[in-house]
Prior knowledge:
The protein is an alpha+beta fold. Helices cover about 15% and strands about 30% of the residues. Strands 12, 15, 16, 18, 19 and 21 form a six-stranded antiparallel sheet that branches. It has a five-stranded mixed sheet with strand order 3-9-8-5-6.
Amino acid sequence: MNMIRLTHILVPLALAMVAVPALDSVAQQAPTTQTAEKFDRDYALEATMLGFFAKDGARNPTLKANKGDRVRITITNGELMTHDIALEKLGIKSKVIIEKGTSTSITFKAEQNDTYYCSVPGHRAAGMVGSFEVVEGVISNETVAGQVPMKDGQPLNLGFETGDLKNWTATGDAFTNALFSSDPSPVHEKEMHIGYEGKYFLSSGGTLNYKQTGTLTSVPFQVTQPFAAFRVSGGALQDTRVEIVTASDNKVIYHITGQGRATLQPAVVDLQPYLNKEIFIRIVDNETGISQIPYIPNDKWAHINFDDFRFYASRPEFPNELKQKDIIILPPLDPVLNAGLSGIEAAKAMTPPPGFKITLAAAEPDIIRPISFTVDARGRLWVVEGHTYPVRAPEGKGRDKILIFEDTNGDGTLDKRKVFAEGLNLISGIEVGMGGVWLGSAPHLLFIPADFKNDKPAGPPQILLDGWGLEDTHEVLNNLRWGPDGWLYGTHGVFTHSNVGKPGAPDSERTKINAGVWRYHPTSHKFEVFAEGSSNPWGIDFNEYGHPFITVCVIPHMYHVIQGARYQRQAGKHFNPYTYDDIKTIADHVHWVGERGPHAGNFRSASAGGGHAHAGAMIYLGNSWPGEYRNDIFMNNINGARLNMDHLTRSGSGYEATHKNDFMAMNDSWSQWLNFKYDASGSVWAIDWYDKNQCHSPNPDVHNKTMGRIFKITHENDKWVQVDLSKASDMELVNYQLNPNEWYVRQARTILQERGPNKKVHKALKEILAKNPDETRKLRALWALHVTKGLTEKELAELLSHDSEYIRSWSVQLLTEGKAVSPEILKKFVEMAQKDNSKLVRLYLTSGMLRLDPSQRWDVLDALVQKAEDKDDHNLPLMEWYAAEPLAAVDAKRALQLAGKSPFPKMLPYMVQRVEAIGTDESRKILKDYNKVGQIGNQQGHHHTTGTAMNH
């Protein structure tokens, strides 16, 4: 499910905004009581992912010293995050600090200009970098004095030194008692330093009364100098800001927020175009900071502080000037239109596109906590009620149920309900077919044999696999689904660590997985990780070419899943230490706004799709909805309570996913659709885990235990049908492979797979494969032949020369399914690697190599890595690296020679690094000899320094 546990992710910006002790960046003599060593310049900075901050609020301030000065720079950690400080040219680095409030320092003699930065990977790029300058003369931070604006010959009260709001008009309650005259302030946390001018400063509530809202508007006054400056601090929120407005037409000519810190900083305004015109100041606080989500705390920075507006004859220079470009602003909270609706009201509140309607199909008490579902060959819904979630019960104490729902008259309501099984434990995924019901039930993958005539178990649950982890029960095995190749596919999250095998199997016969896609064969009982990486996928589906896609949470949300691929991970390392780099998202967008990271955009991201957390995946391949929806992938946006849509387009060996307008909004903050599937009529069923709390928590009491819904989305073109494909003849099932609605294709294929080999079936399917002009129909025939054991190796080998790149590529996958091929097939693979003009085929060949023994890969990879036209492909360079990497251990010299032929910039450097990792005298000699003949570093496009491991 979406349910992202915030403790898993360090959210830098949220943490950076927590108050920390004030720090001083002004050069000063270090107290002799602290150290015997004396410093001419002693700087103190706070370290956060937003940057290094001085006591006066300056972000990444320029630190200055005279030549020869002894300098110390001390950093104190402002958050629970790993930080250090380093000097680039001097090459010195402090120790690493982790805990909030801990400190470390560097000391050095000032000889030249330098750059200070955090050396933790990624932190410098995120903005933790500043300048150190060696200067001549006195180092001073003094600035020119400004002038208080006048009106009617009197100075205006724009610094509040009269002790009241004279010359200002207030609305709301944020400014009724807004003036303060002490630091620490009574409305801010006591360790916060305000640093105001004169006797008073203004705050719209501080961190104590942040829920108050209102505006404060000054009287209009004439611009008599070309520049102005004022001091501001507080939240970096769109609805807490200072505005400069023209009096004649009420036009906002300048605005700025705080940056999530208490210390007042000067903001400079260029007023040259407005000389002699009248302006006024408007201080806005329309942000309450109140979180509508139980597990997200209120935002205490929902206020603004202001002081000391003055004019200047020339642009004033402040060392701690607050600049708009340095502030990462959060947009306002999305309006919550509804919450806690009845099922009927919830259906009415939704806004589907024209021509569509939403029907409440079932609601509490008939369905409670629906966590997973599937549709059977009769069009009925098999729904899991997840009463045990989020904590697995002691053995024998599970409370989960499997219910069978049916719409008997086509009115969109599920009027028939049966209990198939109960007393189950932590069920997170369900699929039916192949003789029974398949269930994710960590630590087990279960199979319940079924008597489908009577809808009852035909025996007790069988444990097929165990070792599935329970560390994070919203990231366990989930979303079971039959693949076109007859395997049962599922997904798995990053923070749960599984070591999967048959019951009683030793570690040597188990497979580790903690993020990615897995599959299990229902008759051979083999288990495999199909691809690894991503974060917490909670949805998988296949397009009409049989290519799988997953929708995930937190990090980029969309991946085209390639057999053997390794994808960007939210956390942790790949199991193979020589991965070096991984394949990134295919999406050209994210569904959250702002630059503070995905969590910060929650409940503020309606404009971009609603937020970072997704559940469910459906590539619509029904036949009744308008053509614009076919082959698009739908996912539910949990935080945004809306159905997102991405459009999938072939690009190179894979796909690009582009943003489409949201399909619809639920307009209800409790809505949590976890999955949705189309049926025989082309309509879509959706399960809704209806709950006030959108985020996973290990505390069972956080979640509602009494609610749940099932909805149906229909288009006016949909025509309800009653079906029972289990009664269809073999030839009818073959003909269903030509149905325009993929639901029939998949259901019929699974039934054919269960019925087993049949010569008549094989003959009819081969006729479709040979003669149907549509590639997708040929593929359907190919898959059905494969799952019914209807193709010999010779017949598959012949398909390697087929006109269709899809048939050729799938033939490669099916031939390598057993992880071994004949010498003749391998020879054909080599020929394809050399001559096939399809990037897709080359991708499948690379995946196929990952399944074969490394000693068999040489010739195929030798041809593949030389394809210059693939060097910028999204997938091929890294997939070929994953396939080539083990060759270093087989024959290091030959592996280097192979990598040296590649135009991919990283192939040779990676192989050098891989050979270095072998660490034997022999491997070192091979590298030395290879370098002697100038083959490392001298080839166009290669960038490598031998002798040092590359940093990734």
